[in-house]
Amino acid sequence: MGHSSSTEQGVSPELRQVQSLAASTGALPSLHKSFPLLSNPQTQSIPLASLQKCFDLTCANVESDRDVVLKELPLLFTHLGSAIVELFFVADKNGVNEVEFLRGYTNICGRAVASTLLNNLFRVFSVACSKAGLQVDLQFELFDDNCKVSGALSPHDVHMLLCICWIFSCDSRMFRGNAGKSEGKFSIPDISHLVSSAIEACSEGDAGLDFWDSSVSEIDIQLPAAKIHLWALKNVPHLAECFQQFVHARLCYLMAPEEKSEASCSSAHESSSSEISKIRLLTPGRAWAISLTLRGAIHEEMSKSCFPSDDYQTNKNLLYQSSVDGKGLNRFWSRVGGYNGPTLMLISACEQNSNARPWIIGALTNEGFENKDIYYGNSGSLYALSPVFHAFLSSGREKNYVYSHSHGRAYEAKPKPVGVAFGGSLRNERILLDDDFAKVTVRHHAVDKTYQHGNLFPNQGFLPTEASVFQVEIWGLGGRSAQEVQASHQKREEIFTDQRRKIDLKTFSNWEDSPEKMMMDMMSNPNAVRREER
Q1: What is the structure's pLDDT at 486?
Q2: Both 201 and 336 in a single domain?
Q3: How many CA atoms lie within 13 A of 521 on its CB side?
Q4: What is the pLDDT of residues 71-94, one digit of tens each?
Q5: pLDDT-above-70 percentage for the chain
Q6: Distance separating alpha carbons of residues 417 and 282, to the nearest angstrom
Q7: Over 50: is that where the pLDDT of 2 sits?
Q8: Is 512 left (phi over 0), alpha (psi -120 to 50) or beta?
Q9: Which of 56, 355, 476, 492 is the most exposed place for a label (fewest CB within 10 A)?
């Protein structure tokens, strides 16, 4: 393949066509380099065993008493490569030739609607489970340009599918970052909030489940596959892209076979970054769930919190943490002022009654916070993060994305609210965090036309809910350029503050003219009439 081109004489029309499709993905030059590494020079085809080995994963140190799903992953991963090749690559007696290699890649990584990509992921999961001897009830009706999925999955199956997608994402990032080698270990995070979300959206009727229970994936219930399909499209629309990224990295960043190393993942021992994340609201699992709703540069910045390869850089993305920086708008502005880029606010709170349990909600804005007494912004999303994940994107009906106001006027008949708010309208906000960061008010989605409808925490009623705030975090997702602009802004503010504090005593000729004398006189007799000498 490395010696062939569509411009050469003797190239078949079929090869020209698949090269054109592969070129539309931007991966054709990389595929030109990979094919000779995998193919047999004599047959000009890739042996099935070699192609399957490209996609096989070895998951080491996954034994964990806390998560039964992980015990099945090593067996599942040994059949992953054969499942991918069987579904997407057509072989002859010599193996997979150049045309079928390009066509198989395009069928997986080419442009397609989200439902088609999700069906591809479901098919790979179903075949891999079947080969591993795991019972999964999925059926597919294949058409020329579409695929219909039916059957059902248990919460256990959903959890296992999500774990695979997580490792797809981890592996592809490592493969790209290590020049074709998938080295190192990574921890499978807690993603029970995603499993709970699927159960809540797909279960028939009110299941009466305790979503704060970490063993929610072990519940004996069947979730219709068609409903899971719709749930994924609404809440994690880019889930199937994890599979695309995995295949792309494995084929386009390929090194010589002897230089490759197997992937490994670990759940028994957590890294130092995982230990740090325990005291943060934005855990890797929650960050990953949010990243599955994003695209572009903001997705990449969000992924740094999912897969922290550089703890120092990840820490710099954390602009404000109330448990460290202190609560209240003044401390908030001192940390986020001057940051002009996408930001994510997370709020951990608990309703003010004895039986209530804590929940976490989030709000994403596409620009920094400003001190205004009106709503502003051009885009945003709301998130229910714990114990159940749901994404509420912009509805496009109104533009009351974010409100953050510090200074009220006492003489106003109806002073503007002081605090940080998202959605709704003034004095009827969907989320309102007060100026002390002590209380948050969450209203029903009926008051809000800016964001999509849905409950921000389990059992949310129609009446406004007031909850005590435990912690608030602000994460900056604008990248290094936004950090540099903020650093410059903060440096200027420090200079202005120092200038305002300094008093040049040389301007005063004697004690009578000094500010110290004036202050002492005012304290000794504050009611004395003082005239300015002219």
Answers
A1: 86
A2: no
A3: 11
A4: 778 888 889 999 999 999 999 988
A5: 79
A6: 28
A7: no
A8: alpha
A9: 355
Looking at residue 275, the DSSP 8-state letter turns out to be H
Minimum mean pLDDT range among 5-9, 99-103, 229-233, 436-440: 5-9
* Residue 103 CB partners (closer than 8 Å, separation 6+): 18, 21, 90
Strands (E), 223-342: 223-224, 318-321
pLDDT band (50, 70, 90) for residue 342: very high
Do 253 and 362 fall within a single domain?
A: no
pLDDT in tens, 458-517: 989 899 999 999 999 999 999 888 888 888 888 887 787 777 666 555 555 566 666 667
Could you give the C-alpha distances from 255 to 5, 36, 57, 252, in angstroms and in order? 22, 11, 16, 9
pLDDT at 276 over 50: no
* 369 and 456 within one domain: yes
More confident residue, 93 or 530: 93
- Report the C-alpha gap between 187 and 210 in whole angstroms: 26
Domain boundary among 237, 269, 301: 269
With residues binned 3-state (H G I as helix, E B as strand, rest as coil), the percentages for the chain, rounded to 5, are 45, 15, 40
Query: Can you say whether the dihedral through the CA atoms of 35, 38, 40, 46 is positive or negative?
Result: negative
Four-CA torsion 373, 375, 381, 386, nearest 10 degrees? 30
Q: How far apart are CA 190 and CA 287, in angstroms?
A: 11
Contact 485, 340 (CB under 8 A): yes
279: helix, coil or strand? coil
Q: Are residues 245 and 363 in the same domain?
A: no
- Order the strands of the 147-153 sheet from edge to edge: 137-142, 147-153, 223-224
Q: In the structure, how many helices (H) and strands (E) does the chain have?
A: 19, 15
Euclidean distance between CA atoms 210 and 357, whole angstroms: 11
- 35 and 117 assigned to the same domain: yes
Structural domain boundaries, residue 224? 13-269
Within this chain, do residues 237 and 340 fall inside the same structural domain, yes or no? no
359, part of any domain: yes
Average pLDDT of the residues of the chain: 83
Q: What is the pLDDT of residue 264?
A: 46
> What torsion do the CA atoms of 86, 229, 281, 348 make, to the nearest 10 degrees?
-170
3-state SS track over 319-343? EEEHHHHCCCHHHHHHHHCCCCCCE
Alpha helices in 406-513 (DSSP H): 479-501
Distance of CA 446 to the CA centre of its chain: 27
- The verdict on residue 284 lying in a domain is no
Q: Is residue 47 one of the residues assigned to a domain?
A: yes
Residue 249 has pLDDT above 80, yes or no: yes
- Residue found by looking up tokens 């006027």 in the block: 409
Last residue of a domain, one of 458, 481, 504: 481
Instruction: Tell me, yes or no, whether 102 and 248 share the same domain.
Output: yes
Asked whether residue 258 is domain-assigned, the answer is: yes
User: Do 341 and 218 lie in a common domain?
Assistant: no
Locate 406 and state its tokens. Answer: 């510090």
Question: For residue 411, what pLDDT is reported?
Answer: 61
Number of separate domains in the chain: 2
